[in-house]
Amino acid sequence: MRIDVVSIFPEYLSPLRLSLLGRAQEDGILELEVHDLRDFTFDRHRTVDDTPYGGGAGMVMKPEPWSLALDAVLAAQSAKRDPELHAELPTLIVPSPAGELFTQSLAHELAGEPTLAFACGRYEGIDERVLDWASERFRVRPVSLGDYVLNGGEVAVMAMVEAVGRLIPGVVGNPESLVEESHSDGLLEYPVYTKPSSWRGLDVPEVLLSGNHGRIAKWRREQQLRRTAARRPELLDGADAAQFSGGEREI
Ligand SMILES: Nc1cc(-c2ccc3ccn(Cc4ccc(CN5CCCCC5)cc4)c3c2)n[nH]1
Whose CA is nearest to atom 24 of ligand 1? Predict the structure, then answer.
């Protein structure tokens, strides 16, 4: 997969060069290009923002630099997209508090794409006409990380690139660890334990030491349901929520 990110703080994305994603880039499984939006400005001050029409606090990102940067991304990605295989428009993810919620399901969807482009806004956001203009060239998807406001799109992009990247075959050593992940079955994950079996007077649940895999699977499922009912009841349908609303510890 080829990923292009446009940002005025390209160095913010440096952690994506580390660890598993870094190794995937060395192995040629993942290609990550980060573009500095200011490289697409031509005034002395490399201006990317201006005051908002209609008034209001802060500044808004100018459209022209974005159009030049996104055209450069399109050109770079076209080499990675076989028009026979990939007839649809390339995807452009625009982090935004006003976007669709990023979920594990969306991560799986995006992991199937040959290319992804990310536009990191800053200030109060990007001139809306950029998204309109880009919609003729990309499938533009405003995406929110959650209902809180960050200072820009970079942190959201790092989270999404990590969530998508780890699903690409070959990135994570043991694909088994991707199967039983949180939210993959619509529930929160069960608790995990390791040695020592007794630590500071706290013991590992004996079922996990039993070697009885049927019992262990049943216990883990019950823990998922209890945790989900206690912490994220909205993820459960009515029936399960009622059955498991008695807190997490009743075992
Ligand atoms: N899930 C999530 C993603 C983001 C995100 C993503 C991208 C950008 C780009 C800039 N910011 C900062 C920002 C966004 C919004 C406001 C308020 N808003 C501005 C326009 C007029 C109305 C009021 C203030 C500052 C971003 C924030 N935050 N949270």
Answer: 124
What was the pLDDT predicted at 249?
65
As for the ipTM of the complex, it is 0.98
pTM of the predicted model as reported, rounded to 2 decimal places = 0.94
Q: How far is the CA of 62 from the centre of ligand 1 (A)?
A: 15
Atom of ligand 1 nearest to the CA of 151: 12
Amino acid (1-letter code) at residue 78: S
* DSSP conformation letters of 122-169: -TT-B-HHHHHHHTTTSEEEEEESSSS--SSSHHHHHHHHHHHHTTST
Instruction: Tell me, in angstroms, the distance from the centre of ligand 1 to residue 45's CA.
Output: 24
Structure tokens belonging to residue 150: 């960050």
pLDDT tens figures, 136-194: 999 999 999 999 999 999 999 999 999 999 999 999 988 888 876 777 789 999 999 99
Q: Spell out the domains of the chain, with CATH numbers in brackets.
A: 2-175 (3.40.1280.10), 185-250 (1.10.1270.20)
Measured in Å, residue 122 CA sits from the centre of ligand 1 at 7
